[in-house]
Write a structure and sequence with these properties.
The protein has 651 residues and is of the alpha/beta class. The protein contains 21 helices and 18 strands. Strands 2-1-3-4-5-6-7-8 form an 8-stranded mixed beta sheet, covered by helices on one side. The protein has a 5-stranded mixed beta sheet with strand order 15-14-16-13-17, with helices on both faces. A 3-stranded parallel beta sheet has the order 10-9-11, sandwiched between helices. The N and C termini lie far apart (170 Å).
Length: 651
Amino acid sequence: MIFAAWILAWLWIFNGRTTVVGHETFDYSFVKFVEDAITTLYPPVTVSAHLCRLGEDETVSLSRMMSRSRLTHEIHRDFEGFVGRTHDTWDHRILYMLDLDCDYAIPILRTVNGSDMFTAPIRWLLVKDSRVFNGNTTSQEQEINEIAEMFRDTTVFPDSDVVLTRRLRNDFMEIKSIYRPSPSRDVIVEDRGSWTPERGVRMNDFAPASRRRKNLQRTHLKSCLVMTDPDTINHLTDYENKHIDPITKANYPWVLNMVDRMNATISFQVTNTWGYRDENDSWSGMIGMLQRGEIDIGGTGIFFVKERIGVIDYVQLYTRTRSVFIFREPLLSTVSNIFTLPFQRSVWIAIGVFLLVVFVLLYFSTKWEYVRGTSEYWESLNPAEQTLSDNLMVVLGAVAQQGYYYEPYRVPPRIVTLMLLIAALSLYASYTANIVALLQSTTDSIKTLADLLNSPLRLGAQDIIYNRYYFKSFQDPVRRAIVDQRIEPKGQKSNWMDISEGVQRLRTELFAFHGERGTTYKIIQETFREEEKCGIQEIFMLGVLDPLMAVRMRSPYREIVRNVALLMHETGLKYREENRLYTKKPECQGQTSFISIGFTECYFALVSMGYGALLSLVVLALEIIWYKRYGWAIIRTCTERKKNVSVLELR
């Protein structure tokens, strides 16, 4: 009988339908509320509960009920249980729960505030037993004010997630949130909803904190603008000199619009650099200000690179700009042997085989012609028998349209010669038609950085601070070679230049210029003739994303800024400034002028002529050497033979 009663009591406790012995606050209803709150408000988390009013047995009973509800948890009952542990301020998997009726609740809150544990992603669930008021409204308001006073000087800013639950009845809990818009503003207590065992958690709205708390009540924020030209401060909104600091002029109205939507105010500082890491591992420029907390928002877009991860936070507000190599498509003749392009390789091989066949046929036909005998007329034109070299010169003269001295007499050599002349005429007509078109054609063979490095184009880069920084940081061999060999060649003048000079050289030379795309296109649009705007190409060099807006690391306004930035993107306000400040790639309206052909286009022809002249000089020198060594002996021998013949004839 006693054993049966013990079993029934144990099952009764395990089912959680009774109050935990010794304290009525943390009973089954409380565990059910925590389960519903985690399901509704939080992702799966580990509950770290700090409940001082529980005894050891009560703690075990509460832990059993939480385990039955599949809640991963840990329960602490003293102040040292919190202070003695190491807390990860980036751990989003822990929900800290604190009983505000504990004697050490305020010391814990002070410790949390000093450890920056009210900042996202840390979550807090504060519990308060308010059933003693029995519906007394004045006392309840007074209790809320007292709780708000506890957080008066804390860092519960808009990114914090501090939820206050007050148990007004056994079956009813009130849910509120606590935050401050800024250090200079009072605590705001939001009414979030309620909980009952039957209906569970009922929220007034499920909007995230970045939507609910975007009204910063005229909080003063600080920002920074990067200006490479001091005069930019006078032209931030008048669209004058759009090609100077365009990213700053685009981001400035964005920041003002965002601040208005957040109901805040802002002030700006000015610097001449975005910020880079120095030898002491500290940052300069705008990034240094963000790192040190001197500003809240970066007013000028900044590149996303791995060195800056963990130093600043980025906002998904891209500025549609990038620095690229811009060049005009060079003529085909400047990058390849234009004189071999009219025919495909197979056609050239067929022509070679054909000429070889003609040469053989011509050799045998002329031999046959000489053996059969010739007339006096033929002998007057061809005083000697055709040799191999004579036949070769006939073939080459016909192909090159230069003529020859040989005059065929009989039918077979005439047929071979006529076939050669007709074929040469057809090939010459096709070749010249193609070569004229190709000499005025551009090439699209420059598509990669390796192609650009090996091209005949000269390279230059805009002399701006971020170009110099990133060019020096390249490690891959192609980019490194471009910098070392073409931009900063050793022993020669570097090719860093002003953007106006770069665009001018882009127009008049075989030149590729690395500069900000919108700025370069603006000057091209204003200075190039219409036909010169055709064939403009670009190759990306830096290998980074478009610049993004940045905020201070773990800024309490980060999510609000991101939310407002997304809204600007969706409503089109972002593109309004970009379209006004950045010039698009000029459109080609048709190539209406003739292209002049000069020495550059005829390079390979001149090279061939030069090698031919050199070869002829070599042959001449060999002939002279041979003549000096063997020629006089042969002439002397021939002269003596003639004398001997003459003497014999006289005898």
